[in-house]
Amino acid sequence: MKKIALIAQKGGVGKSTIAVNLAVALGMRTALFDLDPQESTVIWSDRRKADPPHVEFLTERRLGDALKAAELGNFSVVIIDTPPAAGPQAYTASQAADLVLIPCRPSLIDLDAIRRTAQLIKAAGVPAFVIFNAAPHSATRLLEDARAVVEGVGLNSAPVVLRERSAYRASWPLGKAVIETEPEGKAAREISELKDWVLAQLQMCTPEAALKRELTHG
Length: 218
Known about the structure:
Elements: E1 2-6, H1 15-26, E2 30-34, H2 40-48, E3 54-57, H3 63-72, E4 77-81, H4 88-96, E5 99-104, H5 108-124, E6 128-132, H6 140-152, E7 156-157, H7 166-171, H8 178-181, H9 186-201, H10 207-217
Parallel strand pairs: 1-4, 1-5, 2-3, 2-4, 5-6, 6-7
């Protein structure tokens, strides 16, 4: 079982939005643990009714037991959503994770806040990447400058960029992901690219990809 933690010092960067969309896109037995007292992903899940992924609110102290239970329950992936602070919940989640994703808008106020997150990541000692989210369209120079800032604090940025798109806002009140509400849309393609990149980082593959390789190579 692989564990992915989403952390960010600043709120409003799209942590929960990325968490739910990635969880749905993975399409495997995925659990989403919400450590944020605001319980945003739990509220999203309530609107979704009984459809997967499994979403559960947890306190920091219960995370270890919940991860053990998820593994016994044959979940393939656990995504851990954390509060908007580089505090104990984020550190505990990072230590438990195989991969940390740090959502960040490519703006100066968000990039300024990423420095403390970088310190936490270094202390946890786990692979981590900044995911630029809600990036303006045609913002090549802005993204280049943002990547330079990220590298300057000792972090890496993911090659996949999520743009500012209304599809993310429209799908949230429905308890849906963009690959469900607009499967042929640009937001859905971005999330699919993010999923593929995350799986590559985790050295995993979907059952569909495994079957494709088997058919190709006999």
